[in-house]
Amino acid sequence: MRGTILIAGAGAAGCMAALTLLENGCPADKIILIDGNEKIAKKIYATGNGRCNLANARMEEDCYYSGSGDPMRFVNGFRPSVFFEEHGIPVHERSGYFYPRTDQAATVARFFEKKILRSGLLFLPETFLEKVQKTGSGFTCTLRGADGKKSAVSAEGLILATGGLVSRAFHCTGNGLSIAEKLGHKIVPVHPALTSLTVSDPLIKAAAGVRTTGSITADGRTEEGELQFTKTGISGIPVFQVSRLVSGKLLEGEKEVSVTLDLVPDIGRNDLEKIRVRRREELSSLTAGEILFGLIPEGLSSYLVRRVGLADEKKMKNVGNPDAVLDHLFSLLKDLPFMVTGTGSYETSQVTAGGVALSEVDPDTMESKVCPGLYPVGELLDADGICGGYNLTFAFATGYRAGLSLAKL
Ligand SMILES: Cc1cc2nc3c(=O)[nH]c(=O)nc-3n(C[C@H](O)[C@H](O)[C@H](O)COP(=O)(O)OP(=O)(O)OC[C@H]3O[C@@H](n4cnc5c(N)ncnc54)[C@H](O)[C@@H]3O)c2cc1C
């Protein structure tokens, strides 16, 4: 490509595209990289709780969602762990999850920062792509700088790596989606994914702050791990993993979606029954709050007691049908149903579901099938992965392919 290549967005996808262009013969003075943040790869610092879970050993179809194509077609053959090892960044694996050896996301962010800035390409921080006009041989792009001043840049190739709507803290406002739409792309409706769930039961606030190992089942999928209770609902990795199934149904118009928790997945039903029988023998000497003592954290026990209509201090000898209360509480340990009425906001979620339709992008080159010269990559596309490094893998893989195919032109 003889003209300028503009890369809008210096997140995981945009950085990977820039580096791949540079490493495959594209002169640095042909590339302009812009980003809403003051520095390159800012969001990467926040990933994986500051550790950057950059890939996963298990790569199968059920690791991604899309309403418009097969995300695996876009990631197959690209392994971030191999890429980073080959670039001198050692990577290590824990239970199939890959991280930089340092366990510091800064290692990955600074790797890109160093490589890209030292190449001499023009990086414009705090600069936004506002508008794009298709011209005969490329694009006229309107940029807005930190000082509010606008300027126009002509580009022969445009890599649109502006991410989704997660989140405003990283200047991800979704305006790349509007730009893609104006250039002729179909946008699959967006919603937050990898997010917490809001439940209809106001009593849940009694359990706020509790963290416990448990499992959640939604739409036939069960995920186990650390459940976190909030003032309005449930969160934690297992909840994130099923949130996409729930938010999809809410988006389709369902008012409430049912999920079930198992608060004692490590205790089999037979063993739990033995514990119940023993508690029953001493029931008349217990308060309601003591029935589940030692089985689950206290805040959670208090919530369950309120849910069956009692207070922790209530003496069981003064309750009308104490056996029924005991049975009810024990049954909730294994099957605690909730009606979910909403999800977390983009500000508290990890990824945007929906976006530019995959069917309109060539998975080998990342070039748009409806607007030649345009390369939509990363979270902007209609693909979202479960927790475990899948979203960064998608961003890196699509950025890599766009960079490689543009470098060859
Ligand atoms: C807290 C958190 C933790 C996460 N942890 C993990 C993890 O461990 N593993 C994993 O796989 N995924 C994780 N994710 C998801 C993952 O970070 C994203 O899916 C991935 O970074 C998307 O990369 P991207 O380059 O497509 O978009 P982004 O990283 O969102 O980058 C887009 C960039 O474009 C810029 N931009 C936006 N609009 C414009 C514009 N108009 N003009 C110029 N620039 C613009 C933004 O400022 C931003 O820097 C996490 C997400 C969050 C929020």
Features:
409 residues; alpha+beta; FAD/NAD(P)-binding domain; Elongation Factor Tu (Ef-tu), domain 3; five-stranded parallel beta sheet; 28% helix; binds flavin-adenine dinucleotide
CATH 2nd-level architecture of the largest domain: 3-Layer(bba) Sandwich
CATH class of the largest domain: Alpha Beta
What CATH calls the topology of the largest domain is: FAD/NAD(P)-binding domain
What is the straight-line distance between the termini?
A: 5 Å
What is the helical fraction, as a range of percent?
25-40%
Mean pLDDT: 96
| Strand residues, percent | 15-25%
Number of domains: 2
Strand arrangement in the largest pleated sheet: 13-16-15-14-17-18
What is the number of helices?
10
> What is the name of the CATH superfamily of the largest domain?
FAD/NAD(P)-binding domain
* Quaternary organisation of the protein chains: single chain
Low-confidence stretches: none
Instruction: Report the bound ligands by name, code or SMILES.
Output: flavin-adenine dinucleotide
